[in-house]
């Protein structure tokens, strides 16, 4: 009997030991599962980071593509504008050459006209008339209005009567050109305008008052 009871106790101890072993194994396995879950969470977090980085890379790639397309479009437009400017410049060069040829031709024709108009030497032809801007290099020699007119009459002319704005421009421009030449002008030029009959009432030598319309 005692032996039988001892055997039963040994069997019970063995069963308890087996249960403890199973329990410890279960706890160890549960811990292993916890470690695997944490690792999985890290992997999932890393995967999310990779997805986020991939999205950012794709976004940057799209922006770079858009920028490149815009740059290519601008480059094409610049090439087109350069081609247009070159065409315009070529036309401008051609027109400039034509104008230079026309200017040379006009200058030659003007010279021929001057020679054929019959103006005496040192006289200037303008709009169908001959003009002489009489001067003396000796600034001490001065003529009054009457002496100047008599000098013109002896030459077969008269003091100028300016009856058009264009003629006034021509006379003024010619005088200014002569002043910038080799002579230093201190004298002015007399014109065909006087107020000897009524002081302050100016009249041209063709008996037309200065304020009258001609």
Structural write-up:
- With 214 residues, the protein is mainly alpha-helical.
- Among the domains are: 60-117; 124-209, Roll (Mannose-Binding Protein A, Chain A), CATH 3.10.100.10.
- Helix content is 65%, strand content 5%.
- It is built from 3 helices and 4 strands, in the order αββααββ.
- It has helices at residues 2-116, 145-154, 165-179, and strands spanning 124-126, 129-131, 193-194, 203-204.
- The strands form 2 sheets. Strands 1-2 form a two-stranded antiparallel sheet.
- A hairpin with an 8-residue loop joins β3 and β4.
- The longest helix is centred in the N-terminal third of the chain and has 115 residues, at 2-116.
- The relative contact order is 0.04.
- The model has no long low-confidence stretch (mean pLDDT 77).
Task: Walk me through the topology.
Blueprint: H1 2-116, E1 124-126, E2 129-131, H2 145-154, H3 165-179, E3 193-194, E4 203-204
Antiparallel strand pairs: 1-2, 3-4
CATH superfamily of the domain at 124-209: Mannose-Binding Protein A, subunit A
Largest sheet: 2 strands, antiparallel
Shape: rod-shaped
Output the radius of gyration: 57 Å
**Secondary structure: helix percent:** 55-70%
Strand neighbour order, sheet with most strands:
1-2
Protein name: (spotted green pufferfish) hypothetical protein
Domain C-type lectin: 126-214
InterPro entries: C-type_lectin-like, C-type_lectin-like/link_sf, C-type_lectin/matrix_domain, CTDL_fold
Main location: membrane
């Amino acid at each position: 009997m005692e032996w039988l009871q001892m055997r039963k106790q040994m069997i019970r101890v063995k069963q308890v030991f087996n249960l403890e072993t199973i329990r410890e194994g279960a706890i160890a396995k549960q811990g292993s599962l916890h470690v695997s879950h944490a690792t999985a969470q890290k992997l999932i977090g890393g995967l999310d980071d990779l997805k986020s980085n991939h999205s950012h890379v794709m976004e940057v790639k799209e922006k770079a593509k858009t920028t490149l397309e815009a740059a290519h479009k601008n480059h094409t437009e610049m090439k087109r504008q350069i081609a247009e400017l070159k065409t315009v410049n070529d036309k401008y060069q051609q027109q400039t050459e034509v104008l230079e040829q026309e200017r040379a031709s006009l200058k030659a024709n003007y010279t021929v006209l001057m020679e054929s108009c019959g103006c005496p030497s040192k006289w200037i032809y303008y709009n169908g008339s001959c003009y002489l801007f009489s001067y003396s290099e000796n600034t001490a020699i001065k003529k009054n209005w009457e002496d100047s007119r008599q000098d013109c009459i002896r030459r077969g002319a008269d003091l100028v009567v300016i009856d058009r704005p264009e003629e006034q421009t021509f006379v003024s421009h010619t005088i200014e050109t002569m002043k910038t030449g080799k002579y230093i002008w201190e004298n002015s030029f007399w014109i065909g305008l006087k107020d000897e009959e009524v002081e302050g009432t100016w009249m041209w030598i063709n008996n037309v008052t200065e304020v009258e319309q001609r």
